[in-house]
Amino acid sequence: MPLSYSQLRTYLACPRQYEYQSIKKLPRGISTAESFGSSVHNCLKKFGEKEYSGQKSVVNDQVGMFDNNQPSTINLQLEDLIDLWKQSFIIDTYKSRVEADFHRQRGEEIMKKFFEWWKSENRQVMGVETSFKIDVGGIVVSGRIDRIEKGIKVIDFKTTPTRTQEEVDADLQLSIYAMAVKELFEEYPSELMMLYLNDDGVTEIRTERSESQLKDAVKQITSVSNYIKEGEFKPRPSVTACKRCPYKGVCDVAAV
Ligand code: SF4
After folding, report:
1. 245 lines ligand 1 (CB under 6 A)
2. % helix / strand / coil in the chain, to the nearest 5?
3. pLDDT for the residue numbered 63
4. Whole-angstrom Cα distance, residue 143 to residue 3?
5. Which residue in 90, 173, 206, 236 has a CA-CA distance of 20 to 30 Å to 223?
6. Ligand 1 atom index nearest CA of 13
7. Does 241 contact ligand 1 (Cβ within 6 A)?
8. Distance 89 CA to ligand 1 centre (A)
9. pLDDT reported for residue 68
10. CA separation (Å) from 70 to 15, 60, 81, 136, 174?
11. Which domains does the chain have, with CATH numbers?
12. Residues of the chain whose pLDDT is less than 50?
């Protein structure tokens, strides 16, 4: 059974949440935090595409990968990014115009910090929201990588609170991305990065993966896939999981 990274993450957070979402397919609302995260991702996807818009060298638009032989000829300015942010901002999930304006302004400040980060290095983007489907121990795992830069550097944008180095070192998502890059480019990335974009500013947390960590990731994915096949959906309530769960209103063991 194919699994997306997002499904794996949901199962690991709480098997019942996975059951509600992927087996019972219960309708769910979108929180303002998720909506804000989508707005940021949409904006940075468009920005990454603009980096290449000076050359008509998109090789495969479907998977979000570019011909990397020529650098972008476009001189992007902060105003371009702010315009993209205004176009990308999703307004629907906020309770009032005032609340939406607050978050749009908050996002604008974050974009200013992102722009400083972006121009601090000579970057060459190889892919934006690059989709993949890889075989992990006989299981098809799919996902999308936010940004790939020449090097090969993988960058995942996060709008959630910044995690610790230890947490990022153990992160399953980045292990999957390392395996996906090996499949796409026939070499492992030199660097994996979580780029946190939140009210603390822009924080890079870099990491890498060893062979043994990748083997552990394969074991973890295989074990989740087996539990799903066996119908193991015992709830795992915790304040951390339940507070972010879109089904806490219908779940009888919610911890919040
Ligand atoms: S409310 Fe908590 S226990 Fe219930 S499904 Fe969601 S995360 Fe799991």
Report:
1. yes
2. 45, 20, 35
3. 54
4. 9
5. 206
6. 7
7. yes
8. 29
9. 54
10. 46, 16, 22, 33, 27
11. 3-244 (3.90.320)
12. 55-60, 72
